[in-house]
Amino acid sequence: MNTDTIHKNDEKQSSQPENLLEIQNLKTYYPVKGGFFKRTIGHVKAVDNISFEIKRGETLGLVGESGCGKSTAGRTILRLLKPTEGSILFEGKNITRVSGKSLREIRQDMQMVFQDPYASLNPMQMVGDIIAEPIYNYSKKSKAELKQEVMDLLEKVGLPPEAYFKYAHEFSGGQRQRIGIARALALRPKLIIADEPVSALDVSVQSQVLNLLKDLQEEFELTFLFIAHDLSVVKHMSDRIGVMYLGNMVEIADKNSLYAEPLHPYTQALISAIPSPDPRQKKERIILKGDVPSPINPPSGCPFHPRCPMAMEECTKQKPALKEVKPSHRVACHLY
Ligand code: SF4
Question: How far apart (Å, rounded) are the C-alpha atoms in residues 300 and 92?
Fold first, then answer.
């Protein structure tokens, strides 16, 4: 490599923003229709003002109970859902409102791995065609080049070449997820949003798929937003973790800090529910009272206050902002 090339590469790297993705005050509301004229009578506040960033090559885990808005957040970032407010910056470029050709270009760089690989794979198409489709749509490769690329992808995800000619129903759950991963990789994206990628799989194959994702992350220099409800899985995969509750980000920190010293009472309850690897070690579990309130009519003040064992009067009136209380550890709670 000559010195000019080296300088050009250095310039290119230094001109790239450190954060691949930056989410600022993102909201996704769904209208609730009612009455004879089907007017909008309210909104489901699925994502209600979240902000975070993901550095290049990093994995950010997003956790929370089902219905907390984590999947909606992932789909909004990919622009599969329309954001109501806020901004999505990808490589420093605001993609919140892009459409048409610009959106199509962005989609090459951001891909999704879904929870249910079977539902996301066309049962009428051969696996080779499923994986080739995005490459075909975005490039002018010959049939032979396409086939070679699909064969390479099958090998990368640990499937035999014969898989090319089979249909999705001929594979096990873990193998189907490998097909879904190969398809997500086909356009060589920079960001992968993995939405509960192993929760539909047998425990015995979960770790194989997780390890595959980790290997591919290194090989393809991928950045991950890893969405899951299982805190052990998220801990295994993530560098940093964000905890969501009722559409809000309530805590975000690097994983060691979050697991060793969770600050938000909701995070403390989630972590107390993880079984200890040593059955002789007694762990006190925090049981939360009540259910998650409706996102159509969230509580005033702190969204967690009706269930919080530490709630104070202020919590019913004032919504706490997410603020940094320790280096790289942010929490939304009036206790801090
Ligand atoms: Fe609990 Fe109040 Fe903190 Fe909310 S702000 S988590 S209600 S202590």
Answer: 34
Residue 121 pLDDT exceeds 90: no
Cα within 13 Å of Cα(158), Cβ side: 16
Ligand 1 in reach of 331 Cβ (< 6 A):
no
In tens, the pLDDT along 168-213 reads: 999 999 999 999 999 999 999 999 999 999 998 998 899 999 999 9
Q: Say how many Å lie between the CA of residue 336 and the centre of ligand 1.
A: 10
Distance between Cα 14 and ligand 1 center (Å): 41
| Residue nearest atom 6 of ligand 1, based on CA coordinates | 333
Q: Domain map of the chain by residue range?
A: 16-109+189-331
The overall pTM is greater than 0.85 = yes
Quick one: fold of 16-109+189-331?
A: Rossmann fold (3.40.50)
Q: Is the CB of 298 under 6 A from ligand 1?
A: no
The DSSP secondary structure of 233-256, one letter per residue, reads HHHHH-SEEEEEETTEEEEEEEHH
Ligand 1: which of 244, 264, 304, 317 to mutate, most ligand atoms within 8 Å of CB? 304
How much is the pLDDT for 3?
47
- Tens of pLDDT, residue by residue over 273-320, are 887 777 777 778 888 888 888 899 999 999 999 999 999 999 999 999
Cα angle for residues 234, 240, 242 (degrees, 5° grid): 75
Neighbours of 199 (CB within 10 A): 15
The closest of 336, 335, 285 to 311, measured between CA atoms, is 335
Structural contact between residues 295 and 45, judged by C-beta atoms closer than 8 angstroms: yes
Atom 7 of ligand 1, residue of closest alpha carbon: 305
